[in-house]
Amino acid sequence: MSLLRRRLLLALLEGTREGCAPLDGLIDGLRIPNEALEALIDELASKGLVKLSNGLVEASMAQRLRLAVAAVELGADIEEVSRALGWREFEEMAAYILEENGFEVHRHLRFRADGRGWEIDLAALRKPYILCAECKRWRRGLRGSALEEMAEGQRRRVEALSGKAAELLPIDGWGVATLIPLILSLTTPLRRMMYGVPVIPILELPSFLEAFEGYLDEIWHLTLKAPPRSSRPHQMTLRERKRG
Question: Which residues pair with 129 in a beta bridge?
């Protein structure tokens, strides 16, 4: 049964990239008896992982991420699941969670410092914090030397950004700003902290955002003085543009 569930979850991820998939198409593609497939989909729907409507199986971005995690937990290949998620979907889900928790998100922040180019996947601002997230959905597990290298790399990115934050990000008038590195993963890592850098499964990101201030002394971070409030034009965030 676990094999059938895994196949179904992967098929749902592939089929719902545009939001929905015909139930008949899933039946034909998986070659699973109708009764068994319908029972499995009803079970997923009861858990809030999909929605059934007029012969279609629908899945939102949040539901697709939960389907992906469930597939990995059942033994599906992480890279295969990541490919099924679609380009940038993992990062967009992380950005969505951050925005829902009151952060202003800047995607793919590119800059030059120390004679070379740098990029931070997501820079999330909520006074006085700047969370600098590296999204690692493609990794086959985060462990050992690979995780150490990621944590060291993210600390270097934050150090480089600390000298450019005032000109790259709208932190005028903050007084001080605290930069915090994060690594976001699709699955649960063996270690939740590496060299002071939190390593967070994306489904646990909301709970992290609620609690991180309480154990900031355990997290590697940098605090810098923000410039005084200036008269430069305000740059609208993506959310503000959408609302307009």
Answer: 126, 178
User: Which residues face 131 on adjacent strands?
Assistant: 124, 180
- Model pLDDT for residues 119-171, shown as the tens digit of each residue: 999 999 999 999 999 988 654 555 678 889 999 999 999 999 999 999 999 99
Provide the pLDDT confidence category of residue 238 given band limits of 50, 70 and 90: very low
Single-letter amino acid code for the residue at 30: L
| Complete domains list, the chain, with CATH | 2-85 (1.10.10.10), 91-243 (3.40.1350.10)
Is residue 120 within 8 Å of residue 132, measured between CB atoms?
yes
Maximum CA pair distance of the chain?
66
Residue 115 CA: distances (Å) to CA of 118, 126, 152, 222, 224: 10, 29, 19, 21, 21
Distance CA 51, CA 35 (A): 18
